[in-house]
Design goal:
There is one protein chain. The chain is mainly β. It is built from two helices and 29 strands. It has three domains: 91 residues, Immunoglobulin-like; 73 residues, Immunoglobulin-like; 212 residues, no CATH class. It has a four-stranded mixed beta sheet, with no helix packed on it. β16 and β17 form a beta hairpin. The longest helix is centred in the C-terminal third of the chain and has 10 residues.
């Protein structure tokens, strides 16, 4: 702490850091200012705070001063004496009287590193190591390997505890003490007791997609199908049988005559880069589109009940239950037939007025669903699941360019 004694200073107001005209001070009311001083300060990168100024006596009348930093790359100071720490290091802050240039004092501001910490936000596992922040820095987000939360999937890191998909970042820039929060999503996993141990998602992806594409679009035709190149005009309804039309596939094509530049392959199941379920950032986890075999297993091993109004949502489709006994596997109840009373899709109350959970099930609205399986005997087509009113739930195949629903699965 450094002090500098002054001569008498006259003032009419006893206000800190005043900027009024000191020439107008009534000298009869002058209170001698004996000294001024600043307190040394330690801060972390990114912090802000006022410098501590002491006037002696504290009721001295004239306190109009200026502030300056010796190194603004380390710490800045504004005209009110508010300091902002920029990066690690030391800077000298000087206070100076506006009227009496000989009056000044200094202090040292030491800036220490800040830290970026990772909060698991209710999850379990070992959080990534803290990151030392010496100045404004871009940090690449770590993976969530080994992190878990009951019934949830890890989506990524965000600077908001209650952040969503839109807040997740792959790279975060900070120049202060900061926290990144793990963002989780209810995984919606439903165990239907299938032989393969396949778990089905409780909901569809938000958009229809063409087979091998990962996002929705307004129209679905061969002309805008991303897995190949459309060469000539054609009637899409007879595309594959047209002798005048050529569509050269980029991938999933075993016929060199139909592959672009003759580069055929033996792929018959979508790879992860072309799997809409795997690539959906909002889904999280190790989700994939089901294979044709997994769809067939769902048809063969579950108890299917058609409804025109699922849980009063006015949506029609099939309630697909985990079968309670072998005789129920593969059964479809439709066209007004009565389902077994032992299966319930909504919570009910027992005799003691306690809530009884709904039986394990998923609901599949009417529509067509993709599998990840190519029809190898007709490479223009891929397999899927067709669900219509009545006894209409079966595998089928259709042109790859069509936009279909997707119900993800995982093991």
């Amino acid at each position: 702490m450094k002090k500098l004694h002054l001569l008498y200073i006259a003032a009419v107001l006893a206000l800190p850091f005043q900027s009024c005209d000191e020439d107008a001070v009534d000298e009869a009311a002058a209170i001698e200012l004996q000294s001024v001083s600043l307190a040394d300060k330690t801060m972390k990168v990114g912090e802000s705070g006022a410098v501590a100024v002491t006037f002696t006596p504290d009721n001295a009348n004239v306190k109009a001063v200026t502030f300056a930093s010796s190194d603004e790359s380390v710490a800045t100071v504004d005209k009110q004496g508010n300091i902002t720490a920029i990066k690690t290091g030391s800077a000298t802050i000087t206070i100076k009287s506006v009227k009496y240039n000989s009056m000044s004092a200094t202090c040292t501001v030491k800036v220490e590193p800040a830290e970026l910490v990772y909060d698991l936000n209710g999850g379990k596992g070992t959080a990534p190591a803290k990151v030392t922040i010496n100045e404004k820095t871009k940090v690449t987000m770590p993976a969530g390997n080994g992190l878990t939360k009951d019934n949830c999937d890890f989506l990524g890191w965000a600077n908001k505890k209650d952040g969503g998909v839109g807040d997740i970042t792959n790279e975060f820039e900070t120049g202060k003490q900061d926290t990144l929060w793990a963002i989780w999503k209810d995984n919606g996993i439903v165990d239907l007791g299938l032989t393969s141990k396949t778990m089905w998602a409780s909901a569809n992806l938000s958009a229809k997609v063409a087979w091998g594409e990962t996002s929705g679009k307004d129209q679905y035709t061969w002309k805008n199908y991303a897995q190949g190149e459309y060469v000539t005009e054609a009637n899409e309804s007879t595309f594959e049988s047209s002798s005048t039309t050529k569509f050269f596939f980029l991938k999933y094509c075993s016929d060199a005559a139909l592959a672009k530049e003759g580069k055929s392959d033996a792929l018959s199941v979508l790879e992860s880069e072309d799997d809409a379920a795997t690539q959906d950032k909002g889904l999280g986890g190790n989700w994939v589109m089901p294979t044709k075999e997994q769809i067939q297993e769902l048809l063969d091993e579950c108890y299917w009940v058609y409804t025109a109004d699922y849980n009063k949502t006015e949506e029609a489709g099939y309630i697909v239950y985990k079968a309670k006994n072998a005789a129920d596997k593969g059964v479809k109840v439709y066209d007004g037939a009565k389902a077994s009373d032992s299966y319930k899709s909504v919570e009910t109350e027992d005799a003691d007025k306690k809530k009884v959970p709904a039986d394990t099930h998923i609901f599949l609205p009417l529509g067509n669903y993709w599998s990840s399986s190519l029809n190898a005997s007709n490479i223009y087509n891929a397999f899927g699941l067709n669900i219509e009113k009545g006894d209409k739930a079966a595998t089928f195949d259709t042109e790859r360019c069509n936009g279909l629903l997707i119900r993800p699965v995982r093991k």
